[in-house]
Design goal:
Blueprint: H1 3-14, H2 19-34, H3 38-51, H4 58-71, H5 75-88, H6 95-108, H7 112-123, H8 129-145, H9 149-157, H10 169-182, H11 190-199, H12 203-207, H13 211-233, H14 237-279
Helix pairs in contact: 1-3, 2-3, 3-4, 4-5, 5-6, 6-7, 6-8, 7-8, 8-9, 9-10, 11-14, 13-14
Length: 287
């Protein structure tokens, strides 16, 4: 953008522009927004509001300003402005989109329960097809990240593909199909892994597929058992006590490690599925 094109709106307003000038300024700011030039978008909308505080575009100007902060990762400022928007423009068509963006902010922060609650309230207070579709889509992702696969499928299925303009419709159903195909995930029980290694050192590690660790645990476990038995046979009770103390720490660590490996196995399977979904998805929201 040239310096001259940047100064034209300022000169027009300084000279006392007409209603048509206001419309042109609005269109110019929207073009900047669509081009992703959020900082200049914000400046143009602030300039419009300064010179025309009673403009018919005030609600969209406030909304775009808040969005520009969001897309420039000034999250705290963006959330403050979106919340202000709810109070300042209770009758605006952008009211529910601001509430949707607040849900997005909670989602981005990893506050999935809070995001779901915000979006649930939104779903029960408006009938905007596009906003409702986006809210269901984002709620589905909240359930994905908390590994509640069945609820994620249910939310994604609620995105209305019958509406061609509904965002993420086809993608939502594609993600639901992936979840249906790949869940329930194969899991390993930490409790079973722990008890297996309690009775036979290393067997819990074998159960979760950690062969190298299982072999090492079995060998060391067998070695300690042999040393204890040998000390008892030769009546070296002090040595037996020392070996038993060291062996017990290893034995209990073997059990704990088996449980940890099982939990890591489950987490890895969940992470892999989430990555598959992310690679198959669009950007969650962009309003």
């Amino acid at each position: 953008m040239t310096t001259a094109s940047f100064l034209i709106p300022l000169i027009v307003f300084a000279a006392g522009g007409t209603a048509e000038d206001t419309i042109q300024q609005y269109r110019y700011a929207e073009q900047l927004y669509e081009a992703g030039d959020y900082q200049v978008t914000r400046l143009e909308y602030k300039r419009l509001l300064f010179h025309r505080p009673d403009t018919e575009f005030r609600d969209i100007a406030d909304y775009r300003i808040a969005q520009s902060y969001y897309y420039q990762n000034q999250i705290g400022r963006a959330e403050h402005l979106f919340r202000e928007f709810l109070a300042a423009h209770p009758n605006s068509p952008f009211l529910f989109r601001s509430q949707l963006m607040i849900g997005q902010l909670h989602f981005d922060a990893g506050e999935y329960s809070l995001a779901r609650t915000t979006l649930f309230e939104l779903l029960h207070s408006n009938a905007d097809t596009e906003v409702v579709a986006a809210a269901h889509y984002l709620r589905g992702w909240c359930y994905v990240y908390t590994t509640d696969w069945n609820k994620a499928i249910a939310e994604l299925r609620r995105v209305d593909t019958a509406q061609n303009e509904a965002p993420h419709g086809k993608n939502a159903h594609q993600l639901a199909d992936i979840l249906l195909e790949k869940t329930p995930l194969l899991r390993k029980s930490p409790q079973i892994a722990g008890w297996l290694s309690t009775f036979v050192p290393g067997s819990g590690q074998f159960y979760v597929g950690r062969v190298k660790e299982g072999v090492l645990a079995a060998v060391l476990g067998g070695t300690f058992i042999y040393l204890v038995a040998d000390a008892i046979r030769e009546r070296r009770y002090v040595d037996c006590a020392g070996i038993s103390l060291v062996g017990w720490q290893f034995y209990w660590g073997n059990r704990v490690n088996a449980q940890r490996f099982a939990s890591e196995y489950n987490s890895q399977r969940e992470h892999e599925l989430i990555e598959i979904l992310k690679n198959s998805s669009e950007r969650p929201l962009r309003f």
